[in-house]
Amino acid sequence: MALVRALIERAITLAFSAFYGLLVVGKLLLDTVKLGPGTVLGHKKRSIPPKCLEDPSLGTHGYAHLEDIRMHYVSNGAEDKPLMLLVHGFPEFWYSWRYQLKEFKDNYRVVAVDLRGYGDSDKPPGISEYAVPKHVNDLKQFITALGYNDCVLVGHDWGGAIAWAFADMHPDMISRLVIMNCPNARAFNQHIQKSFTQFKMSWYMFFFQLPCLPEFALQFNDFAALDTLIKSEKLGVKSEYTTEDDMEAYKYNFTRNSFTGPVNFYRSVFSLANLNRDRKKIEGMGTLGITMPTLIIWGDQDGALDKPLAELSAKACKGKVEIKYVEGASHWVQMDRPDLVNKLIREFLSAE
């Protein structure tokens, strides 16, 4: 019965994937006609990293050698301080935490990782290499490799999804949990089945199931998709905190690295093998209850995730949980309002 259900879900997913793929191809063709193939099919050469990526005040770079990958990270603060682990989302890398790396270094060893498939971390081939349990295991090994037993875990977007799962599976390794604009897996699965608004917002998840085309679309016209996601009026950062230099940092990062690993995050969720094998594990995340103190920070102008998901996700928490909405902030809340986000985190960490 489970296999039949998985096959039906897969067929529906592929149908929507094909539909959205046709829409994207149409948009790409129109842009090619309008701007010319020479413009849209190439991108600026970026052989030298932007100066903002070499800012010593952000910390020092390092690598942790795990069981099957090498994970890159940036660390700021003394090694004898408690660990604050920052986990980015899509399509980001460690630099998304630049404001937090500086803010908390006096009280914590603040470490921002590149998840597998991103930045300077290894990029194993195969969709199954990007399933949620793989990322959970990476973080478990990483914390141990740094010499810690636990940490303050902070996750945004996909990093938040991994953090939710990690908190459910390894509660003893988290002292406090901070989630930014990411629902608990069960909350999202339930909400998308009932909310047409969220279903429309999630169109890209279906599009990303197609082979090759998503990677091509994300690189098209000198990574214009990054500008749309991070800086556009509808979806992007609403403040002055993300500059053109910052955008060059993102484009430099993805010029050097393929989008296949990041897109495989989404493919792994929908893959037939994972639907059949990991359904109970993934859907069950949150059913045991998140026991550690938890802070959910939510930019209320998120163009990808519906606001009610914050309240639904809080229901997974058996321990103390707070929800703080950041008015006027986008999905990229830690970059959009770093001053307020840092204040909220500090107040949460200092509370008894």
TrEMBL record:
Residues in coiled coil: none
All copies of domain AB hydrolase-1, residue ranges: 82-338
Ranges annotated as spanning the membrane: 12-30
InterPro entries according to UniProt: AB_hydrolase_1, AB_hydrolase_fold, Epox_hydrolase-like
Gene Ontology MF term list: epoxide hydrolase activity
Keywords per UniProt: Hydrolase, Membrane, Transmembrane, Transmembrane helix
Classification via Gene3D superfamilies: alpha/beta hydrolase (3.40.50.1820)
Family membership: Belongs to the AB hydrolase superfamily. Epoxide hydrolase family.
Record's protein name: AB hydrolase-1 domain-containing protein
Lineage of source species: Eukaryota, Metazoa, Spiralia, Lophotrochozoa, Mollusca
